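hey can u check if this looks right to u? its 157 residues, i copy pasted from the old doc so theres a chance i mangled smth
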Amino acid sequence: MSTPIQLDINGKTYSLHVESNEILLNVIRDRLNLTGTKYGCGIGECGSCTVLADGRPILSCQTLAVSMEGKKIVTIEGIGKPGALHPLQEAFIEEGAIQCGFCTPGMILAAKAFLDKNPDPSNEDIKNALRGNFCRCTGYVNIIKAVRAAARKMSDT
């Protein structure tokens, strides 16, 4: 049985019917065509499906869509402004923190939620904040450098 809901994603309201067991990841990717959010492991271990809900990182592969009504959801498509990347997106490019790019949206959103609360983190703070997001390509050194660079950029604005 489907349930009518409204989801606020990236500042836009979507009215749709979802099944009671339909996960947010599938709604975002398959029904709303916001494909920046990735399906990685499907069991909440890799962080590739990370989105923000009311500013907090959540695993969309482990979250029922019906539970998100009334929350403000942000995907990778929702940060930055038209024609201007978010400082985290810029820093990931500049610091070479992207290789295959599969983990990047989840990493950036987890980092954004973290930097919104801790604008001057240590490397250890960054490692702890991103511990639920796995990258199989970069070795994390450039990811940590990118988050630090973004923190500097964000504090300058």
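The longest strand covers residues 2-9.
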